[in-house]
Amino acid sequence: MAKESTIRTPIVCVMGHVDHGKTSLLDRIRGSSVVSTEEGAITQHIGATLVPIDAVTRMGGALSKVSVNVPGLLFIDTPGHHAFTTLRARGGALADMAIVVVDINEGFRPQTIEALQILRNYKTPFVIAANKVDRVPGWRVQENQPFLKTFAQQNERVQGILETKVYELVGKLSDLGFNSERFDRVSDFARNICIVPTSAITGEGLPDILMVLIGLAQRYMTESLKVSADGPGAGTVLEVKEERGLGMTLDLILYDGNLKVGDEIVVAGNDQIIETKVRSLLKPRPMSEILIEERFERVKSVTAAAGIKVAAPKLDGVIAGSPLRAVRSGNRDEVIEQVRREV
Ligand code: GTP
Ligand code: MG
Q1: Nearest CA to ligand 1 atom 10
Q2: Is residue 197 within 6 Å of ligand 1 at its C-beta?
Q3: Is 24 touching ligand 1 by the criterion CB < 6 Å?
Q4: What is the ipTM of this complex?
Q5: Residue 115: phi, psi to the nearest 5?
Q6: Is any ligand 1 atom within 6 A of the Cβ of residue 6?
Q7: How much is the pLDDT for 99?
Q8: How many other CB atoms sit within 10 Å of the CB of residue 4?
Q9: CA separation (Å) from 239 to 10, 46, 246, 300?
C-alpha cells in the first residue's frame, strides 16, 4: 500500500517573559470554543491545546480569503520563569512556529530575549504578540475584535501611544537582528516578523494572531509538515510523571506518524536506551469532569500532531526531552540508532 502523505497540524510554542500573558492567551483561545461536542471544537491535549482550522476560521473571519490546507494549530505553553530554560529550549526545538508574548507596557525582558535566541538557533518562524493592549492608558475595549477594528475605535492619543510602543518593539528586535513591522504592514512574511497587538483578557487581536500563524504555516512550511499519517510515531517527551493507578507515564508531543497501544517504543533513559511497549494511551477529559480516577480517557491510537500521555512498563529513568520512536516492521536497530543520535 502506498504511503499517503498528509499535512499535519503545525506545533506552535508559546514563549516569553514571566507574567507577560502566555497562559492567559491560550486560556482565552480555549475559552472561545463552542460546546465541546460540536465539530471543530478546541480541545485540550496533554501539554497542548488543539485549535482546529474550523475554529480558527470562526474566530478569524479574514482568513476566508486564504485557501487553507493546514488542519489547525497545536499550541504548547511554556513557563516564563528564568529557572525553566531547558523546558523552553525543548519547546523551541519541537515547535514548527512560535508566538513570543511581550507585555507591550513592559517591553522586552530577559526571557523575551532568551526566547528569541532559542528561535533563532532553531530557525523557527515566529510572531510577536504585543500583549495587554487593554492596559494602554485610555484604551477602549472592543471584545474579541480584530486589531484594526479595535484600533480604529481608539482616540488619536491612544493610537499614538500604541504606535510608539510597537515601534519600541521594532527597535529592540532590530537590535537583535530581526526586521519587524506591525502585522498589517507586512507584505512579505519571509522578510519581516509580524507584531500583533493583542489582549489575552479581552480577546482583541486574537483573530489576527491566528490568521498570521496560519498564513506562515501555509506559505512557508507545507512541505515540512508533510507526514505519513500511517507511519511509525515519533515524538518528544515533555515530562515524566508518576500517576496514581498508572505508574510512571510520559507526557508526549507526537509530531510524526501515529502511535498505537501495543507499539514497541524506544526512548532515552539517563544512561541507556529503553525499549518498552505502549500499555495505554491517555487523553485528558474535558475540564468539567475532573474526578481523579476519570481524568483520562483511554484511546487505541493517536495521530500527529498531538499531545498524549503514554503509560508503559520500564519508564523509570526516562529523561524529559527525550525523543520517542515507535518500532514497526522490524527496523528495531535502526530506530535505536536514531534515538541515540537525537538525544
Ligand atoms: P508564566 O507562566 O509565569 O511565565 O506567566 P504567563 O506568561 O503565562 O502569564 P499569565 O498568563 O499567567 O498572566 C499573568 C498575569 O497577567 C495574570 O494576572 C493575567 O490575568 C494578566 N494578563 C495576561 N494577559 C493580559 C492582558 O492581555 N491584559 C491584562 N489586563 N492582563 C493580562
Ligand atoms: Mg504561564
Answers
A1: 21
A2: no
A3: yes
A4: 0.99
A5: -60, -45
A6: no
A7: 96
A8: 10
A9: 20, 10, 15, 21
Q: Is 211 helix (H, G, I), strand (E, B) or coil?
A: helix
The per-residue DSSP string of 29-48 comes to: HHHT---TTSTT--EEETTE
Q: Rounded to an integer, what is the distance from CA 119 to the centroid of its chain?
A: 13
CA dist., res. 10 & res. 1, Å (int): 26
- Interval 37-92: pLDDT, tens: 556 677 778 778 888 888 887 776 555 555 668 889 999 988 777 666 666 676 66
Q: Report residue 190: phi and psi, to 5°.
A: -75, -25
Farthest CA pair distance, the chain: 67
Compute CA distances 31 → 25, 94, 153, 214, 316, whole Å: 10, 25, 25, 20, 36
Burial bucket for residue 42 (CB in 10 Å: 0-12, 13-18, 19+): buried
Residue-wise pLDDT for 241-291, tens only, equals: 999 889 999 999 999 999 999 999 999 998 899 999 999 999 887 654 445
Task: Let me know: does 259 contact 327? Beta carbons within 8 Å.
Answer: no
In terms of DSSP bridges, do strands 126-131 and 97-103 run parallel, antiparallel, or are they unpaired?
Answer: parallel
Residue 80 is assigned to a ligand binding site: yes
Cell of 255: 509530531
d(CA 85, CA 78): 10
Give the Cα separation of 74 and 71 in Å (integer): 10
Q: Where are the beta strands (DSSP E) in the chain?
A: 5-7, 11-16, 43-45, 48-52, 72-77, 97-103, 126-131, 180-182, 193-197, 226-228, 234-243, 247-256, 258-260, 264-268, 273-277, 280-284, 296-299, 301-303, 306-311, 323-327
* Ligand lying nearest the CA atom of residue 21: 1
Amino acid making up residue 209: I
At residue 213, what is the residue type?
L
- Was 177 annotated as part of a binding site? no
Q: Is any ligand 1 atom within 6 A of the Cβ of residue 19? A: yes
